[in-house]
Design brief:
2 copies of one chain form a homodimer.
Chain A (H helix, E strand, L loop, with lengths): L14 H14 L12 H7 L4 H13 L3 E4 L3 E4 L6 H8 L6 H5 L3 E2 L12 H15 L13 H15 L8 E4 L2 H12 L4 E6 L3 H9 L3 E8 L2 E2 L1 H7 L3 E4 L13 H14 L2 E5 L15 H4 L5 E6 L11 E4 L2 H14 L5 H12 L2 H28 L3 E4 L6 E6 L5 H10 L2 E2 L1 E2 L12 E5 L5 H16 L1
Parallel strand pairs in A: 3-14, 5-6, 5-8, 8-9, 9-10
Antiparallel strand pairs in A: 1-2, 4-11, 6-7, 10-11, 12-13, 13-16, 15-16
Chain lengths: 463, 463
């Protein structure tokens, strides 16, 4: 394919952004058809007389959003209208219609979903009404900028016991979801800094860093966690990691690797963002304290959420800032005011104080462990040597290497034909995405549907 | 309680001894409170992947030394007395005490407050419980990125009738407060653009634009609204205005000025942000349709909020994007996901559909009009020619020029001495702040306190 895009060097818009927009528009307008091979980075760079790095950033962004996929040893291909990760929730969830109406024909292994049957409605309802009747007057205050102190205190206590996090309530900032907190963090740390980013890693957070003109430095991940060689080579001023359950690989960062990372951060005066997005769901093995808990030099920013441990639609997340960032953190947060509804916060306070939250987590941990076992057993019994599971020890999703003649896109299409939604692994990668690996979340799928779904996958792939 | 202790299997110290030491230290440090229920032997053994016998030996030793007690049929409880700093800290925090306790001695004319007495609790409570029971299942979906379609539809309809805004629900984006929506908008419009900003104007929004490296161009405001000379001279790519009630001056932008501004925007291909922060509270005079409603060329971004018309702590705001910004707007918003809790949105749907919201606004409009009249009358009768009121025709605040030998800072200090909180006008100005003008919000003050407060101000200033 020959591409003659006109890039305007007089615009304030960076070239890679212009190129990204042009590609996207062309794909959406159907000028670049799905499956079309894109020019190599070297060739396109030459054609448009821009640097290969610019082309690379463009391709990375398009890949992160699911517009294109890279196939090993054959290059980049347009993949628009398949899975746009960032838009997938929207696509899956037309408003107001009961979920069942939309999904009755699908078995959807989307990793963003949680179990929808076992939520303790009556207890939540009680806390909600109770907090309204008890704290009604307080709903008229603007409330604490960082979040209600009582909730931040409960979070600090819980984090100490469950994750070994050492913090005072003043270090905890609540926000309506991790992305908002990351945005605040970017403004606290100011832009134009470099960030070492797990490759593969979480595309949404990466995009927010990019939007804030942070320089993303992809760092490979091995069985022990993010690779220290890459970090020591680049010495970024910030590192973003998911140690308790690497996203998407599912590995747990070893104690030794945690110590090395912390030692480096202390020496290099860099900060580490520890995203503990589903740390509650550890099923077995020796628990490893959080990086924040092991840190002796206040280099770690810990992030957590109630999305997995309670409800995604609650939109309650939190971050724990080191002392050196508190003042700036409070200043930036106060510009947005507290983004979590005061009543939702007070409901959570009630819910946690009554022990309902812990009860729920314990229940869900058992439930998800059972779902996970059923998933792994069924995969083993149905497909045996044909598939390899990655990251099955913890969390709510797995990556599955499928040994067949289908590539990632074909695996997903074949599954769709059987009424099963699974997701691509390649968008998580900025370099060398795997060719035949799919991404499976099991939290939102019933035990029966897990069994049925895997059988359908076998039918889709192995026949 | 979820416990993560790191047990070191390489030490010579037996595991039960390590566990015993860790428990003891935690109780002594106050991390495990007296009366807290400890995890069952079985659960803790599983969590730490050690034998139940090890846990049993630990618990027995702790019990022998009086750190924990066993209660029949209910398990083990910490029994070690220790003052928890976190909790004592919490005890003397105002944010979790009833507001009245903290403010009883103050008459606070803060402009961010709303009337705290007339909020329709029982109706809101009903909608809240009703929506939970009716839509419970939906709370498990991530929900529509832009906000629940049903709520966006109701907002679009209401905006058409109340403000003359023409839009489709697809153009409405919900967010947890205006600042978040402005942040999204900055990322939609990209940075390094110039923005014409009312001087005086709203400092919080200005800061958010500055944070996104937009170039702020202060434009003077006259009786008709923002001055066209300044705008035509600078031709900024974006203009931020508060036409229905200029903040802080309180003037209403004339029809003629609106037409000039729209004409300029169309010719210059610039966008206008119309911040309608308290447009519901117009008390008299010919209603002027919103800029968005008069606009023929899709140059206006309309912003509104439920903070004034319902509750600030709800954190529900919205913006209406022109078609040309929809795609990018949806893309950026999807990065943050929807920041308003799904249940809060569904509660609003119920509340609006039942007509409770309109009923509330009508009631509050009458109430605030009466408060405003009492404020103006009392100012007139108490201080007469000594003071000049600006922007008293609409909205929930006024600016007051005080003819005395005190400057702004002194006026505020003198008022404080009398137990009255009023606020400075100078922070709203980037150029030539007035020397003796104060800012007074009356929505959150009772009628009696308005009278008493003004009398105190007279005592503070005129004696």
């Amino acid at each position: 394919m020959d591409i003659t895009f006109f890039l305007n060097r007089n615009l304030d818009i960076p070239l890679y952004q212009q190129l990204y927009q042009l590609f996207k528009k062309n794909m959406q307008d159907g000028h670049i058809q799905k499956g079309v091979k894109l020019p190599s980075k070297r060739l396109l760079a030459a054609q448009l007389s821009i640097s290969q790095t610019t082309v690379e950033r463009t391709y990375e962004q398009l890949a992160a959003e699911g517009y294109i996929v890279s196939k090993p040893r054959s290059g980049w291909f347009a993949d628009y209208d398949e899975i746009d990760l960032i838009h997938s929730e929207m696509a899956n969830n037309p408003s107001i219609k009961p979920v069942t109406r939309e999904k009755e024909n699908w078995i959807d292994f989307h990793y963003g979903n949680v179990d929808s049957v076992h939520f303790p409605f009556s207890a939540w309802r009680k806390s909600m009404v109770g907090s309204l009747d008890q704290y009604g007057q307080q709903l008229h205050r603007p409330g604490d900028i960082l979040g209600e102190l009582e909730l931040r205190t409960l979070i600090a206590e819980n984090l100490y016991h469950s994750r070994g996090v050492h913090c005072r309530p003043e270090q905890v900032i609540l926000g309506a979801g991790n992305p908002i907190l990351l945005q605040i963090l970017c403004q606290v740390l100011r832009r134009d800094i470099s960030i070492g980013y797990e490759d593969p890693g979480f595309p949404r957070s990466r995009k927010i860093f990019e939007m804030n003109s942070m320089k993303i430095i992809p760092i490979p991940v091995d069985e022990e966690g993010i690779c220290m060689d890459g970090i020591r080579k680049e010495n970024p001023s910030l590192v973003y990691v998911t140690p308790s359950h690497q996203f998407p690989l599912g590995t747990v960062m070893t104690f030794d690797r945690r110590r090395q990372l912390l030692k480096w951060a202390a020496e290099n005066q860099s900060f580490i963002i520890e995203d503990d997005y589903d740390g509650e769901y550890r099923y077995s093995g020796q628990p490893i304290p959080s990086l924040q808990g092991l840190d002796q030099h206040e280099r770690v920013i810990f992030m957590g959420t109630f999305s997995k441990s309670l409800l995604p639609s609650l939109r309650v997340s939190y971050m724990v800032l080191p002392s050196s960032l508190l003042e700036k953190g409070r200043e930036i947060t106060s510009l947005y005011k507290q983004t979590v509804s005061c009543h939702v916060q007070l409901t959570l306070v009630e819910f946690i104080k009554k022990g309902e939250w812990q009860k729920h987590i314990n229940k869900m941990r058992k439930l998800y462990q059972r779902k996970r076992e059923i998933l792994l057993e069924t995969l083993q019994s149905e497909m045996g040597e044909q598939v390899k599971v990655r990251g099955g020890d913890t969390g709510l999703h797995i990556m599955l290497d499928v040994n067949s003649h289908f590539n990632e896109k074909e695996l997903i299409e074949k599954a769709k034909e059987q009424g099963v939604k699974i997701y691509p692994a390649s968008p998580f990668y900025t370099k060398q995405p795997p060719g035949n690996t799919v991404f499976i979340g099991f939290a939102g799928v019933s035990e029966a549907d897990i069994r049925a779904g895997i059988k359908k996958l076998k039918a889709a792939w192995m026949n």
